[in-house]
């Protein structure tokens, strides 16, 4: 059984004082160890600075002195670099990182003087792409052959499907391995590291302090993605889109999963080609998905079965992998979220509580939909089902002619359209209300459990 994945905060500070401060912050933020990036220091005196940094550090330390040719900042010869890493080991560093290209040379230079406490990470970085599964396997073997205690491979994602190859390498590796895929399309490798058994993953103290492209913050790893609770049996859900980084879905769904004790994680999935994504991520562990722009219409075609309502709308925003046979089932929760929010908005604005409890306040109303994307189709379908006369337009008219204006955009909460509508005297309904309601229905489809409505509303109000 593998040990839990460690959380490592990199310090790329320019001074040793700031590095020492970063080490203390890393501990208070919940990290397991800190990476000291010597190559980022503006001036570096090994004897003075390493003794200062490694004397009673608040956390275990990983010392890295990365050369320019491997993506770092150091531009000198290898010998002074090796001497600094050797000194770091003597002074009690828990790990040092050395590049595969010079690993044999480094091991020869220390001539078996490595302290027992210190582990040597031998690393390989590919800033262009992610190699084939066969090439990755051969790379692991080459790194192991150097005498490395821990294998580290970092590649670059050109497509989210690249990450699946790294997952396979991590799962089947017989020695401790750090497997990371850089840039936004590789983010799930960092978030799901503990599911597949990676030795450690990196989380930054704040934006701008990354030591490699695509590193999330340690705060997000711990507080949004609940990485300490992710294990081999954790189900993966996510938001498929392009772009996807702006989505509040991970904040909302992960908190909701945690509140009901559901063993799952919800991650952003930057997907270029929907069919390719589902061909690669076909495991039952990838259990359900929200689907947003630009994939809602394409999702209709890749699903094995589509709910009749989603078929009528012509767009899918929720996909469930049926546990019994692995088939993909498509649904649309947008129309329920949007129409119920609009109905309630009309009731409030007209003080019409629908005393008899039947019918819809949309019945007989003129319902103008601006735009005919996935959300627009859902709105048009829902309004028509409620008895409204639906008109689809390309652009809005003067807003004073409308009694109520709804915007499907939820971030920001009050969009330019809603602000102008309010100034014109129209009642307004924010897309945030639609987002919460459609997400509640998605949560029920994902889990089979009632959605924790109050919690979800509190989270979205706080994070809007």
UniProtKB/TrEMBL annotation:
Residues 239-319 form the Shikimate dehydrogenase substrate binding N-terminal domain. Pfam families: DHquinase_I (PF01487), FAD_binding_2 (PF00890), SDH_C (PF18317), Shikimate_dh_N (PF08501). Keywords: Flavoprotein, Oxidoreductase. Transmembrane segments: none annotated. Gene3D superfamilies: Aldolase class I, Leucine Dehydrogenase, chain A, domain 1, NAD(P)-binding Rossmann-like Domain. Residues 431-458 form the SDH C-terminal domain. GO terms for biological process: chorismate biosynthetic process; shikimate metabolic process. GO terms for molecular function: 3-dehydroquinate dehydratase activity; shikimate 3-dehydrogenase (NADP+) activity. SUPFAM superfamilies: Aldolase, Aminoacid dehydrogenase-like, N-terminal domain, NAD(P)-binding Rossmann-fold domains. Residues 368-400 form the FAD-dependent oxidoreductase 2 FAD-binding domain. PANTHER family: BIFUNCTIONAL 3-DEHYDROQUINATE DEHYDRATASE_SHIKIMATE DEHYDROGENASE, CHLOROPLASTIC (PTHR21089:SF1), SHIKIMATE DEHYDROGENASE (PTHR21089). This is Shikimate dehydrogenase (NADP(+)). It comes from Acorus calamus (Sweet flag).
